[in-house]
Give the backbone structure.
Amino acid sequence: MNTEEARLLSPQVNSLESKSEQSLRPKKLSEFIGQKPVVSNIEVMIHSALKRSSALDHVLLSGPPGLGKTSLAYVIAHNLGSNIHCISGPALEKKGDLAALLTNLSARDILFIDEIHRMPIAIEEILYSAMEDYRIDIVIGQGASSRTMSINLEPFTLIAATTRPGMLSNPLRDRFIAHLHFDFYEERDLKIILKHNAIKVGIALDDDALDMMAKCSRGTPRIANRLLRRVRDFSIYNDRNAICLEDVNETLLMLQIDQAGLDRMDRKILNVILDYYGGGPVGIEALCATLSEDRETIEDVYEPYLLKEGYLIRTPRGRECSTRGREHILRLQN
Ligand SMILES: Nc1ncnc2c1ncn2[C@@H]1O[C@H](COP(=O)(O)OP(=O)(O)OP(=O)(O)O)[C@@H](O)[C@H]1O
Ligand SMILES: [Mg+2]
């Protein structure tokens, strides 16, 4: 993956960018654009929790990277007027880490666990009784002299985010009262987000430039925001008062993103299936080996959008390049 792609598509957010991401994050539910089914569910749940003066039910948020799972967790905390404590699944190494977090929660606090599918399975068990009964059982000592101590917790809400809900164990998944899935954004929603954020970063946008940016952002607000910053740099470099279509096209060319919003790796995936495997089907392991990419990156970052847009088909025998994918590659070659 070259560095430009890494910046636009990589799910990882570096610390510098994380600060700028935070500045563009929606603060309250009314500022959260799109994802209507998710937002409607959350609205009802928040309203009910406030009216019952109880903790919000546990929520599992799933979907591809950059669609707003973390943002929504913060928005929920804001609308409830609750404190939010954040931790990433892989950062929890020992049962004691999670026990310490849980026992420090006040009534109606939110515990947000990001990438919950990467939390060690041994730690997961603590969550079962914590979620169900607001209680944890800790074993003290070892061998014959060991005993179990129960600690009661304040009623809290667990909000967990995952790009891979299928990797969660059934007992854990079943303890979430709501499982809300994020889909890729419609272009019209991305336009609203881009318009808001252009104002926040202090640059004007021509309408056709806006249309093209929304079209090439892979239905993902994080990518739209990254693209906006890159195009803004180009526009300033070109000494313009507002971002125009030419700035967007120049930026896309530099980033090797085509007019359908596909980047070099997307095209490479389709090309490899066509050239090496006669259009497929090809097993994911063989495909990743040929691409020299790890499976998680292909499955989490690239594949969901290619599948959603119908460039790629997933069959029990492996991945196939669709007619649309074939036509797209042929068009680019001519
Ligand atoms: N609905 C939305 N309205 C406005 N901006 C949004 C929305 N969703 C996401 N964004 C923007 O996209 C950025 C990325 O969103 P966020 O970090 O919440 O995604 P995520 O789903 O948690 O990704 P990951 O799986 O990588 O953790 C945010 O900083 C925010 O600027
Ligand atoms: Mg996140």
In short: The chain has three domains: 21-181, 187-254, 264-333. Residues 5 and 300 are 15 Å apart (CA to CA). Residues 36-52 form the longest helix (17 residues).
